[in-house]
Amino acid sequence: MPSFDEVLKEAGEFGRFQKRVFFLLSQTGITFSSLFASVVFLGRAPGNFWCRIPGAAELNERCGWTLEEERNFTVLPLGNESGSGECERLDVAWDTSAGCSSPLARYGNHSTGRLPLAPCRDNWVYEQPHASIVSEYDLVCDNAWMLDLSQAILNLGFLAGAFILGYAADRYGRILIYLLSCLGVGICGIIVAFSPNFTVFSIFRFLQGMFGKGTWMTCYVIVTEIVGSDQRMVGIVIQIFFTLGIIILPGIAYLIPTWQGIQLAISLPNFLFLLYYWVVPESPRWLLTRKKGEKALKIMRNIAKHNGKFLSPHYSEITISNEEVSNPSCLDLVRTPQMRRNTLILMYAWFTSALIYQGLVMRLGIIGGNLYLDFFISGAVELPAALLIIVTIDRIGRRLPFAMGNIVASIACLITAFLPEDIPWLKTTVATLGRLSITIAFEIVYLVNSELYPTTLRNFGVSLCSSLCDLGGIIAPFLLFRLAAIWLELPLIIFSILAAVCGLLVLLLPETKGISLPETVEDVEQL
């Protein structure tokens, strides 16, 4: 009986069939990255806003004021001595006898700054009321922290998806969980767009994150499992589509003025992926681990046919594993020495890559400027990362570029922290080098993670380790902004230390260049 890898070589390791499946599943990267970074535009600043004094709406209607006139008469007096009028309002009664031109006339123009004030609770007025979730759900002033909470909730959804759907994909099949996840992302995305309040928004944002993680991780594993060992750089190429989503997102946000429109634009395409039911098969590797050899062989014959190849008619069964089928368990990832070392190092690498990656992205955004252009450039910076990996990974292996990506990022962060402020172009350039380097490390960890786990545990192992990525994403904004309040460059020092440690640890991982994907735990122990 031939092994799976022998049959795959005969059917074609990266022929027309695999290229089609790869291209189709890669589109998932565009929608997932748009979801991942959407808070930048869903939660953008709503422009000018102020607190409406009780009774202002009635007087506005009677006097026929525009919003600008209402603001001039009822809010701008606060700007003299008492504040901006965004989070506080005048706690006074209207002087209706003075007419519409000066409702606060009884207090005198010179004494406005000494008028009593009251905090604004739920009566804000926005120049752009539906531009973002900030204006939609009043996430301003004392509620501003809820915007950060919305992103943390999304990352919690990613975390839940890594555990729940990663386990489900190993137990019930890759393509089934992928299709169910696509359906979930689309439905939850629509509900998020029309949420009546922030509570409903948060609940379905969490669920959309959970299903979104299911689509991304499962499509990645399917692509990795249907190609030969010499073609697994497709795991890096698929990251380019993630970057394309980052580049496309600001264009979508620029053309669509409302946050609901942006939310629908990044959610509805997931329904199109349901059509893959008819063109993307189940992973034959997974079928073999579930003792479904006939189905796997049928799929392999179909792959060979589309690739213009021919499998021997004498093949009646494919061997892949002598292990009994068992449901994946967390203990399986740490039960043996090599699996345990791989798991712990990969968890740290995921956590570090995500924390530094998101931290550097947010740090570049602090400098201000054109939001759409800055975001586009920050995404374009990631494209050379994939190209550098493709050029080097099959020549010098995985481990050295993985380590160097972290080490260079560490050095770049450290240098950026101590560069003087009067040469901002140099600080930005070095910080961008750090962003490029950590992107290289971030993209390699996807590939290495899938190559270091056996087929029976691959989806679960990748999902569990990558859950640390989501934990890093939750911590990143709090770490960045709290440490920056102490010293602006302190986060860069922390990033530098974390990256340096990661660069040394990944050198302890086995090299997987040109090696067939492990099928059993014993295969991993022998790497």
TrEMBL record:
The keyword GTP-binding does not apply. The chain crosses the membrane at residues 21-42, 149-168, 175-194, 200-223, 235-256, 262-280, 345-366, 372-393, 400-419, 425-448, 460-480, 486-509. Coiled coil: none annotated. CDD domains: MFS_SLC22A1_2_3. PROSITE patterns: MFS (PS50850), SUGAR_TRANSPORT_1 (PS00216). Keywords: Cell membrane, Glycoprotein, Ion transport, Membrane, Mitochondrion, Nucleus, Transmembrane, Transmembrane helix, Transport. InterPro entries: MFS_dom, MFS_sugar_transport-like, MFS_trans_sf, Orgcat_transp/SVOP, Sugar_transporter_CS. It is found in: Apical cell membrane; Basolateral cell membrane; Mitochondrion membrane; Nucleus outer membrane. It holds the Pfam family Sugar_tr. This is Solute carrier family 22 member 3. It comes from Dicaeum eximium. The lineage of its organism: Eukaryota, Metazoa, Chordata, Craniata, Vertebrata.
